[in-house]
Amino acid sequence: MRDTSLSPTYPVAVPDSSQAIKLRLRIVRGEEDAFGPGKAQLLESLLETASLNRTASALKMSYVKALALVRAMNEHFREPLVEHTRGGRQGGGTRVTPAGQRALAEYQAICGASEAAAQPGWRRLRKLVKD
């Protein structure tokens, strides 16, 4: 199942133009998206909030959807990307693991490299696109 609920893109900006190239990179495992822009955004928010509830609110999604995304990510990676404990007397919490931090950093690096690699072709293609 493709994760389309969150679709941040990594636009390659064109100064003073309405034209842009938008790259959406996804890590696919079988027929499912193991990781992509939405899950990256979820991890980024979790790093800031350490709360699945606050992250879900910030991303304008239900808690159940956010939890499903966390479970899906953890299912596709050798090590969990997120550790989640339910509330209670001690209170719950959500933590991006070192593996999650590495996965996010590598994904962001791939996105950056892809943007840079797309620039020469985009400059040529842009000439063919109407203003």
Average pLDDT score: 87
CATH architecture: Orthogonal Bundle
The secondary-structure element order is EEEEHHHEEH
- Number of folding domains? 1
Strand residues, percent: 15-25%
Task: Give the % helix.
Answer: 40-55%
Largest sheet: 2 strands, antiparallel
Q: Give the CATH level 1 class.
A: Mainly Alpha
CATH superfamily: Winged helix-like DNA-binding domain superfamily/Winged helix DNA-binding domain
> How do the strands of the widest beta sheet line up side by side?
1-2
CATH third-level topology: Arc Repressor Mutant, subunit A
Q: Care to count the β-strands?
A: 6
Features:
alpha+beta; 131 residues; disordered N terminus; 4 helices; two-stranded antiparallel ribbon; 16% strand; two-stranded antiparallel sheet; Arc Repressor Mutant, subunit A
How would you characterize the overall build of this protein?
This protein has 131 residues and is α+β, with helices and mostly antiparallel strands. The chain has one domain (10-124): Orthogonal Bundle (Arc Repressor Mutant, subunit A), CATH 1.10.10.10. The protein is 48% helix and 16% strand. The protein has helices at residues 37-49, 52-58, 63-76, 98-126; strands at 10-12, 21-23, 27-29, 32-35, 82-85, 93-96. It has a two-stranded antiparallel sheet. It has a two-stranded antiparallel ribbon with strand order 3-4. The protein is elongated. The model is unreliable at 1-7 (pLDDT under 50).
